[in-house]
Structures
1.
Amino acid sequence: QVIARCCKNGDMNWISRHPYGLTGQAVFWWQDKFMKYAKSIGVKNLKFFITEWDFWVYGNPSFDYLMQRWQPVVKHAGSLIGTLQYRWTQYSEGGYEFGMIGGWGSGGQQMPPQWPMPGISKPVTYKYDAFWIMRNCRGTQYATKLSVPVLKNTPSQYAYAVTTSNANHLNIVIYYGYPYTHVSAQKRYTSLRIHINVPIPPRVKGRTLVMARANARTISTAAPVQIHGDRINMEVSVPALSAVSLTVK
């Protein structure tokens, strides 16, 4: 009704959505439905703004929840104005501590002891880190094939890769979620070894490569290295529940 009444006559060309607790796949399953209906009644170029990424989980589940949302966000970038975590500073409501930065709230009494609030003005790592690792994901998207044979026939989304480039840098982000367990083989894959072979767009003139890593507890940046030629050709390990970002500039 909102799309039919407000968007069709030109009064509104974007919609703010506040999906709470939905996975990225569920968020954009609905958005695809909205877009399909909008196009069916002649509404073109409708945009969306996602205003809620926080959820009632802490630690590794929270980090994985946020990271798993990025893949469908990137795929739908053309129809998105942006996304918000909802709260920057700590905020207590309904027995949960919202926010990405520690503040003056409840002091963390409602949080699990293994995931205490970090202190005033310090990042809540399992939320902050999931945004920090994507900070260079900007610009034109490139088709990216992540081939992991052991994950080929799994029904769940365990790993993905995103490649983007703007005028002066190329960025690749790889994420591996909860470790895959091959039950019949009795083997658990706690880390992936990825061979990266990606051409560097001509508009990216620099050849300085910076690797960054993030998980629910820590972020790190390796010392810059120089690469030669016009491709990134290297291997990286990606432990479960962690992300790796490679930036050439």
2.
Amino acid sequence: MALTAGLVASAAFAVTFVPLAGDLSVVTSSDRQKAVVTVANGGALAAQFCVSFAEPLDQPISIEAKGHVIYVPWPIESLPPGAQRGGAEPIAQTLTVVPANGPALALVAKGVKPIHDVEKVIVISSVSREDWAGPNNTRLAPDAAACLSADEQAGTHS
């Protein structure tokens, strides 16, 4: 899988694709300009992503299925790889949603190549991973409604 140079902040960092499998949920806002993508395992949150689309979607996206997402963490030079942090995690501006039964979606910023071969590519203005490590190996995230709010921008929740 090849990536455009825009996905890597520095040549010193290797690109790491992170797949997260479980129960997928993708829901768009009523104005179809934002979406929240969640992955859960056994009813427990594994990951939550907030997405803002470059243009309102023609049709809403509604996925509730087993599957996985693939993303690329954005390296932060001041943090060693794997360091725990609270709040939103910057990621490369590409997120692939692969339901077990159904077509995969690539949510990518303009000019960014999808990280997985998919039938449908949707141009986004931003995506961020919004969950963080909580107590007792749990994952915490803001309410999904915060991702869908017209007043919020993805990547600003903590």
3.
Amino acid sequence: MCVNDLKDIHYLFEYQPHEGRYGKFDSNILLCAFKILDIYMALCNARFNLSSFENDNFGPLVEHTPTGIQYMKHNLYQNALFFYNIAIDLTWQLGWLFIYGSTNNLMPTPELHEDLVKKCTYNNLIAALEKNNRSDLITIYKNFYKYMTQTNIRKNYNYLKHRGNFYYDGLGNQHSKSMVAIRINGKDYQYPVLKRKKINLEEVCSEFVSFDKNLLSYIDQLINIIIPSDYLAIHNDPISGTYRYMSEYKDQLISYYEQCDIYKQRIKQVVKDLMNELCNYIDSTKKK
């Protein structure tokens, strides 16, 4: 099985920000650790579909016929395609939260996470990293982006998302020209008929394995820069962690529960101010 060649990824689960870590690290680190878990789950889903792709018996899910098996495999291929690309997009949020997650020393709340990631795009991320002089992260992001955009994993994902479905052998018929020719001035012409991009399911497994290895290497590079070296060594001590957390965020904690709507509005205003500042920076670089 081609998935046997892949590196274990379950170490990513260890970055879960438990309560002992809440009292030790700033909001941006906790938000990034939380995002690593999102990336981990996307990779697990991608690999599940990839490993299932190598089966020929799917039980009661489909009829055990060549058409039934091919139909199931085309679904597994497309699922793997989506989850690998979801993992890529989530890695952009990793850098984004690292830069902006501790703004105004806000608590790492679900509302802060949601409002921040809504504004994260690849172009916004690169601009934010440039504005904050993070050339180390820019290099990693740009190198992988260049590699990623040249792979079938990203090209086929964009095709599926923006253009339509693929054609797979065994699932219908497809021709590039009409079966009947038209004679014009003594010459026969077969007119072009609409067709979809063809995917050979026998070749995709090796592409996924190569992509997976490069993706995981890229994720590890980001983690090594973003997450403090002592992060995993912090044990889950909820009592001391909560005490430190309270001393840091006591006033915000009261506001979060006693004036919830006002606090949430404060977060939205902070994110809005961040984006205005970033947009001004982007505009200034265009004028140079």
